């Protein structure tokens, strides 16, 4: 409303919604409904973003214990805030930064819709802190944490194939990062866009965005390594073996120079141990038979890791990489089996459906009888997937 110079009465008129109801939501006395959010999206032209903020928590059907856990997190932060001279002293900032790290670690083993609930809770709390008393340094740290959380929210929306909300959160993340002069977050924003274009088949744009990310991100950062990897994948999709191999070698060298991270599952910290997974994906997309043995090792490690916690979401994607490599190596029967296992896993996110479709198309081209069952499983998965909010 403030951005558009619109009064509450004008908004009620344009949205054909009760003025009193809008007033209570504006004063945080009542939660907004999905219907209200849809009407406001139509008035503001925000492409489903407001609806996503309201519907994401409802769509996950959280249990009472989950809501209680989030309330307890915020209460802990509030206690820390009250003992400081400002509204966001060291204890408060340390809490919100630690919670972001926990969410980034949870990303690979969480349902993206459920993770969005906690992300939005934290973003709302940071918004409150931004309105409070703080020093310049504290303000910048809040902007940085808000930028990381917005970036993670965008990634979850991409996983759910919700393009409108994903784009909105990417814009927010970049805006906060630019305000805080945080080049690594800007680099990650560009890299995330590159991945989105790659999954949509716009490989030229994916290369351009990956290169832009490498230009802006610090050369010793995880964003720089991941952007280099993304460029290599895009060249692989275009069949350019020379550029692909050069980037595989670059990423391998950069990863080897990194120290082992204490939290290897953190989505925004490149783990050197994951470089073989990147190589397997890239070579599989290139149609290189060398990808198969590497992909087998990666899958085995994800199913039975050294810490005993299976990485189910990554394993489902790794099965599709292995399937593609098996087809290149003329082993379509095993490829069909691995693809069916991935489809039946229950953890394959919508942003990876295209990878399954590619394997199925290649199985069909071989005339294998398994193609019919794979198609049925794939169509069933698509029918049960959450639809993009509008």
Automatic annotation (TrEMBL):
Coiled coil: none
Ranges for domain HTH cro/C1-type: 3-53
Entries under SUPFAM superfamilies matching the protein: lambda repressor-like DNA-binding domains
Source domain of life: Bacteria
Protein name, as recorded: HTH cro/C1-type domain-containing protein
Native source species: Actinocorallia longicatena
């Amino acid at each position: 409303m403030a951005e558009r110079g619109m009064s509450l009465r004008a908004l009620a008129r344009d949205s054909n919604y009760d003025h009193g109801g809008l007033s209570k939501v504006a004063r945080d006395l009542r939660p907004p409904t999905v219907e209200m959010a849809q009407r406001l999206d139509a008035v503001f032209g925000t492409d489903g973003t407001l609806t996503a903020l309201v519907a994401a928590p409802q769509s996950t059907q959280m249990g009472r214990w989950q809501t209680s856990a989030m309330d307890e997190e915020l209460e802990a932060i509030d206690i820390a805030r009250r003992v400081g001279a400002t509204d966001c002293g060291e204890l408060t900032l340390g809490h919100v930064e630690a919670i972001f790290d926990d969410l980034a670690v949870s990303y690979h083993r969480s349902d993206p819709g459920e993770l969005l609930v906690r992300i939005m809770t934290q973003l709302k709390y940071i918004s409150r802190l931004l309105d409070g008393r703080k020093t310049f340094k504290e303000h910048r740290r809040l902007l940085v944490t808000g930028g990381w959380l917005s970036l993670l929210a965008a990634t979850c929306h991409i996983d759910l194939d919700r393009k409108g909300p994903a784009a909105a959160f990417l814009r927010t993340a970049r805006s906060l990062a630019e305000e805080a002069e945080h080049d690594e977050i800007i680099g990650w924003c560009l890299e995330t866009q590159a991945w989105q274009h790659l999954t949509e088949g716009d490989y030229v744009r994916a290369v351009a965005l990956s290169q832009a990310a490498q230009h802006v991100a610090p050369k010793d950062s995880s964003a720089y390594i991941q952007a280099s990897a993304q460029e290599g994948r895009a060249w692989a999709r275009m069949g350019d073996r020379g550029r692909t191999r050069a980037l595989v070698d670059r990423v391998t060298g950069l990863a080897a120079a990194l120290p082992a991270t204490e939290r290897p599952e953190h989505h925004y910290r490149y783990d050197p141990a994951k470089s073989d997974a990147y190589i397997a994906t890239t070579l599989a997309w290139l149609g290189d038979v060398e990808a198969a043995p590497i992909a087998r090792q990666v899958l085995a490690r994800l199913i039975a890791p050294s810490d005993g916690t299976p990485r189910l979401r990554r394993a489902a994607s790794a099965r599709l990489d292995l399937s593609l490599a098996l087809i290149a190596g003329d082993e379509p029967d095993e490829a069909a089996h691995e693809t069916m296992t991935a489809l039946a896993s229950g953890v394959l996110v919508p942003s990876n459906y295209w990878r399954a479709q590619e394997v199925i198309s290649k199985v069909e081209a071989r005339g294998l009888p398994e193609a019919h069952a794979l198609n049925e499983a794939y169509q069933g998965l698509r029918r049960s997937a959450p639809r993009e909010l509008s």
